[in-house]
Design a protein that fits this description.
The complex is a heterodimer. Chain A contains 5 helices and no strands. Chain A is mostly helical. The radius of gyration of chain B is 26 Å and the shape is elongated. Chain B has 2 domains: 206 residues, no CATH class; 169 residues, TPP-binding domain (Rossmann fold). Classes of the chains: A mainly alpha, B alpha/beta.
Chain lengths: 103, 476
């Protein structure tokens, strides 16, 4: 119990962020027309690619003799970049088509 | 010090652009800009991390720059090429694949970080230290479970959409799945209380991967969009776990934002099919239901129509409604379809498209596809509008759509798609169905519509049929 209370008070900033972000996430999506569901899903997919930052930190902190961290970190950076770059490019390609039609 | 503050500003910009970008993405006029805004924010956050990040404890900058830039370039090049080359029809698969990459990335981070912790623990095995790292272990384990479920699930979803993986289920699979998940969580809880049993981490990894596979395996292809959207929000949560771990606000905001938005999007998609999420996941589309529920086998005869007759009927109609489906996407027939629309319009026929919210493999799939072929927005009708217009429509041309026009969804309570709103094509005067064969659609059930007296079948590949129709109509 003590540990839980302790955890909450030391991490209150983070907890506030989480709660507010949940509502923001729900709020901004609510009025999306079904036409945009696919691009939106793809865009959100690119945004969670922010996990790449964690991969960069892992990679950047790895000591040069810690091969496990180096190799896994490297793979994580590659995969994370794939997620980010691929996600944004695919989304842009989808939306490009929408734009062309708007006279 | 100043670098630390600059990095905070970078992260702040990143978080704001994510929110703004997602907001702009939900409006057709600003969507493309929104995507670019989010991408710009992501770039700032990434390069800020590379050059400004300092470890809290040691105060050291990051190193291994060569490795990092190698990774970034490889990922960047492959990602761009894959995203540029992919066919419009294969978009859903691509999103699933990229989503899986993100999940794998989160899982790998957890593996490496746990490895660090267990090394420190070996040097410093006193209870105080264990007490200190327990929250970290918890976050690492949660990130690992969610990330690997998302990775394995996305890979299966990807394989299913491109036809490499077949539906597969057996009796008691749901129970086995739940047991696997419970076992993984139980092991995780044990590991958090006893963090020196580091081997258990790999047990959790294996269980989570297996769970991801078996979780998606029995779900039918028609439900894949919902699953991908759900896994998308999972990966968001996994990314947020990384945010907890490094006390990194941009990962936290980005991850939670996607987690929340993705969950809502998943629910919206389920609503479009008039089903609950639980129903999709534990699925009546799954193996057993398909075998038994599709039950009421339909007796009757379908009649075929020749190309020239079809051309005749359509060019003398006042209003033609086109119902596109997955068949159109597979055949890459969107341009041919637009061509037909143009020719008919020149003849004075009113042509519109009736878009079912879940036609194709993803909500909005048909819109994206038809947009590619320059079909005007104004001609695309959503389901309710289309249903209002069917009674005044002379000819409905169904291009490779099946379940979304199946009347069983209204009339047959035993049907697995019972309750899903459909396009009421039967209200129109004539219905022409283009399909490759009489094979049932993705839900694996027969469609009584094809045997109705109003309906005639026009077999063949959608693209070829449309091209032939165009030339027939021109020659009339």
């Amino acid at each position: 119990m003590n540990q839980v209370l302790n955890f909450i008070s030391t991490n209150q900033q983070i907890i506030y962020i989480v709660i507010l972000m949940i509502f923001v996430g729900i709020e901004i999506i609510e009025k999306v027309p079904s036409v945009l569901h696919t691009p939106l899903m793809s865009g959100a997919n690119a945004i969670h690619g922010v996990v790449i930052i964690g991969a960069i930190i892992v990679m950047g902190k790895a000591e040069s003799d810690n091969y496990l961290a180096l190799v896994l970190g490297f793979v994580a950076v590659v995969l994370g970049t794939l997620n980010v770059v691929g996600g944004f490019v695919v989304t842009d390609r989808m939306l490009e088509m929408f734009k062309k039609k708007k006279k | 010090m100043i670098q630390q503050q600059l990095l905070t500003v970078c992260y702040l910009i990143g978080s704001i652009t994510f929110i703004l970008g997602l907001k702009m993405l939900s409006n057709p006029a600003s969507a493309r800009k929104g995507n670019l805004v989010a991408a710009a924010g992501m770039t700032i956050a990434i390069f800020g991390t590379i050059f400004l990040y300092k470890d809290v404890e040691s105060g050291e900058h990051l190193h291994n720059y060569l490795w990092i830039f190698c990774g970034l370039s490889i990922g960047g090049i492959i990602g761009t090429l894959a995203a540029k080359k992919v066919q419009m029809t294969a978009m859903p698969e691509m999103v699933s694949l990229f989503n899986g990459m993100g999940g794998a990335c989160a899982a790998l981070i957890s593996l490496v970080e746990f490895n660090h912790l267990s090394k420190e623990l070996a040097l410093n095995p006193n209870p105080d230290f264990i007490y200190f790292i327990q929250p970290k272990v918890l976050i690492i384990v949660v990130g690992l479970i969610i990330g690997s479920v998302s990775f394995a699930g996305s890979m299966i979803a990807w394989g299913k959409l491109n036809g490499k993986v077949k539906d597969f289920s057996f009796k008691g699979q749901n129970i086995l799945n739940l047991m696997m998940l419970a076992f993984a969580i139980g092991t995780a809880a044990y590991l958090v209380t006893n963090p020196h049993h580091s081997i258990l981490l790999y047990v959790i990894l294996a269980l989570s991967l297996l769970y991801g596979i078996f979780f998606v395996m029995p779900i039918g292809g028609a439900d894949m969009p919902v699953v991908i959207s759900l896994l998308n929000s999972f990966t968001g949560v996994a990314a947020a776990c990384g945010g907890f771990l490094y006390d990194n606000k941009v990962m936290l905001t980005g991850g939670i934002l996607v987690g929340a938005a993705g969950t809502l999007l998943t629910i919206l998609m389920c609503k479009a099919m008039n089903r609950s999420l639980k129903n999709v996941l534990i699925g009546s589309f799954g193996g057993n239901a398909t075998a038994s529920g599709g039950g009421a086998s339909i007796e009757g005869h379908h009649k075929e129509i020749s190309l020239s007759d079809a051309a005749m009927v359509m060019s003398y109609a006042t209003k033609v409604m086109i119902v596109p489906g997955y068949g159109l996407a597979v055949a890459q027939a969107q341009h041919a379809c637009h061509e037909l629309e143009k020719i008919l319009t020149e003849k004075g026929v009113e042509v519109k498209y009736a878009i079912h919210p879940v036609a194709g493999r993803m909500p909005g799939h048909m819109n994206v596809l038809l947009a590619e072929a320059d079909v005007s927005y104004d001609n695309l009708l959503e389901m309710e509008q289309a249903n209002d217009e069917f009674p005044t429509t002379d000819v409905v041309l169904i291009l490779g759509a099946n379940d979304v026009v199946n009347p069983a969804a209204k009339t047959d309570p035993t049907s697995p798609i019972y309750g899903m709103p459909i396009l009421d094509v039967e209200l129109a005067k004539t219905v022409i169905v283009n399909k490759r064969s009489m094979k049932p659609g993705y839900a694996g059930i027969e469609n009584e519509l094809f045997f109705k007296p109003k309906t005639s079948m026009l077999f063949g590949d959608a693209k070829k049929v449309l091209q032939d129709l165009c030339s027939e109509i021109k020659n009339l």
